[in-house]
Amino acid sequence: MTYAFTTPIYYVNAAPHLGTAYTTIAADCVARYQRMNGNKVAFVTGMDEHGQKVADTAKEHDMNPQEWCDSMEPAFRDEWDRLKITYTDFVRTTEERQTRSVQKFWQDLYDKGYLYKGAYEGWYCVHEETYYAESDLDKNEDGLYVCPECGRPVQESTGEENWFFKLSEFQDKLLDYYEKHPDFIRPEIRRNEVVSFVKSGLKDLSISRSTFDWGVPLPFDDGHVAYVWADALLAYLTGIGYPDNEKEFNECWPMQYHFVGKDIIRFHCVIWPAMLMAAGLPQPKCIFGHGFLLTKGEKMSKSKGNAVKPEDMVRVFGLDAYRYYFMSDVQFGVDGSISLERMIQVYNADLANTWGNLVSRVFNMTNKYFDGKVPAKSDDSPMKDIVDGLYEKYNEAMDKVDFTAAIKEVLALAERVNHYVEESAPWTLAKEGKNEELSQVMYNMLESIRVIALYMLPFMPETSEIVLKSLKVDATSINTSWGELEPGTQIDMCEPLFPRLKEDEIDFNVE
Predict the structure, then answer these.
(1) Residues of 265-288 as b/e, b for ≥16 C-beta within 10 angstroms?
(2) CB 403 within 8 A of CB 26
(3) Which class for 347: exposed (0-12), middle (13-18), buried (19 or more C-beta within 10 A)?
(4) Sheet holding 208-209: strands in order across?
C-alpha cells in the first residue's frame, strides 16, 4: 500500500517559521509511522512561487521573481533537513513538470466546458490572493476597504478580463459529498464551517489573471496566467507523477490526507474538491485543517512579528524535544497556546525526568550488574500486558492523527517502568545476591525501553535511534511484541538524552 499525503505548498514570501514547521513535522510523524508499519510513503511538500504577492516581494528585494524564488529554496530545504523531515517530493510551482500539470488540468476542464471568459468587478487582496465582494469588506480608520482575513487594504478590480471556473455548479454536489463522507473534512468544527459556507451559496471562481505575467500561461489563452490557487493546488498531483507517470499517480491517488492550516480550508475543502469533480478524479480521503499556534492569544505569523524561527527552538531545546512539545502538548486540530515556560515544563517532566532518566538509570545498572549485556529473557513482567495492548491504542490514535493521545499512551508505559524500578529495587536484589530475580527485572526494564523507543521514533527520531542503536535493534519496523530483545546483546552506553533545563539559563524568548 502507498500511504500518500501532503503539507500545503508554502508561499515563498518569507522563510519557514513555527507555524509552517508545525504542519510539516506532523506530516513527517505520519510518514515515519507508516513506513514502520510497512507501507510505502508518498509525502509531498514544496513551494508556491507564483502570484502577485511573490512578484511584489521580489521587487522589494530588488530581484526578479525567479531570482527571489530560487533564493528561497535553500531556506525551506535546509529547514526541513534540520527538522529531519522525510518528504519524498519537493514541488516548486515554477518547475516545468508543474507547468505541464497546470496546463493539462485546465485544458481538460476547458474542453469539458467548465470555464468561460468574463470580467471581474470587485476587490482583491494581494496578501490572501483572494477576491472579495464589497459586502464582505469592512473599512479601516482611514476609510479604506480592508481584507476580512488579514486586515490589509484591498485593491479594486474593475473590469479585469478573467477566466472563470463554474464553481457554482458544484454547490449541491459538494454538500452531498460532505454528507456521505463525514470524515472528508476534519476535525468536525472545520467540516461545520465549510458546510455552512457552501450552503450560503457559491460564486464562480476566477482562475486567471491578465494584468501580470508571473504565473503559468493558460494553454488556451496566452494572455492569461493561472491564478495562484489554480496553480498551487495542482502541485499535489505533480508530486505523485501527474501527468507524466500514470503508474505512480494511480498508486498514490486518492491520497490519505492533505494537512493544512484552518485559514486555507475553503481553498482545499471547496475549490479543490470541485476542481477534482470537474476533472472526473476521486477525492482525497481526508482534508485535515489544524489550528493556529498562539502566543499571548494571537496567531503566530510573520506579518505580526511574533513568528519564531524553528532553528532557534532547536538550538535551545534540541530537535527531538522541539518536535515532541509541538506534537504532544499542542492538540493537533485546535488552536494551541505556546510559551517558553510551558516548553521547559514539558521538557523536564516528560523527557528529562521520565524518559531520559529511565534510559540512563537502566543502562547504567545493566552495565554495573551484567557487564553491559542484556540478561536472560523474562516472560513474567507487569509491563507485558501494557505492551501487548499498546499497539492497538497507539495505532488508533495515529489513524486519527491524534498525536497527543498516541504519545500519552507511550509516556504512561515509561512512567510505569519508572515505578517498576522503585518497586523492584535492583540495587537491593544485587546486594542480596538474588541474581535470577535481578536478571528478570533488568530484562523487563530493557525490553520496555526498546518498545518505548520504537513508539517514540516518529516523534523523536534522533534520540530513539540512539537508544535503539545502543540496544542493537532495527529501527525500521515497529516490532513491539514482548520479548524481542535478544539476551546477550552488548549495550552501547550513551550520553544523557535530555539534560534538565533551567529557565534562567536559557537565552531565548519565544514570546
Answers:
(1) bbbbbbbbbbbbbbeebebbebbb
(2) yes
(3) buried
(4) 208-209, 221-226, 217-218
3-class SS string, 425-463: CHHHHHHCCCHHHHHHHHHHHHHHHHHHHHHHCCCCHHH
CB 462 within 8 A of CB 319: yes
pTM: 0.93
Amino acid (one-letter) located at 247: K
Give the type of residue at 38: G
Other beta carbons within 10 angstroms of residue 358's beta carbon come to: 21
Contact of 19 with 310, CB cutoff 8 Å: no
Question: One digit per residue, pLDDT tens: the chain, 511 residues?
Answer: 799 999 999 999 888 988 899 999 999 999 999 999 999 999 999 999 999 889 999 999 999 999 999 999 999 999 999 999 999 999 999 999 999 999 999 999 999 999 999 987 778 777 777 777 777 788 887 777 888 878 888 887 667 789 999 999 999 999 999 999 999 999 999 999 999 999 999 999 999 999 889 999 999 998 999 988 999 999 999 999 999 999 999 999 999 999 999 999 999 999 999 999 999 999 999 999 999 888 765 655 555 545 578 998 899 899 999 999 999 999 999 998 888 889 999 999 999 999 999 999 999 999 999 999 999 988 889 999 999 999 999 999 999 999 999 999 999 999 999 999 999 999 999 999 999 999 999 999 999 999 999 999 999 999 999 999 999 998 887 888 999 999 999 999 999 999 999 877 776 554 4
- CB 102 within 8 Å of CB 96: no
- What helix, strand, coil percent values describe the chain, rounded to 5? 50, 15, 35
Phi, psi of 333 (to 5 degrees): 125, -20
For residue 42, which of 355, 202, 251 has the smallest C-alpha distance? 251
Q: Which three cell numbers, joined as nine digits, stand for 407?
A: 504519545
Rounded Cα gap, residues 127 and 301, in angstroms: 13
Compute the distance between CA of residue 132 and CA of residue 266 in angstroms, rounded to an integer.
Answer: 14
Of the candidates 34, 132, 14, 138, the one whose C-alpha atom is nearest the C-alpha of residue 79 is: 14
Burial of 351 (0-12, 13-18, 19+ CB in 10 A): buried
Read off the C-alpha cell for 40: 510505502
φ and ψ at residue 94, rounded to 5 degrees: -90, 0
- 410 CB-contact burial (10 Å; exposed 0-12 / middle 13-18 / buried 19+): buried
Coil/strand/helix, residue 382:
coil
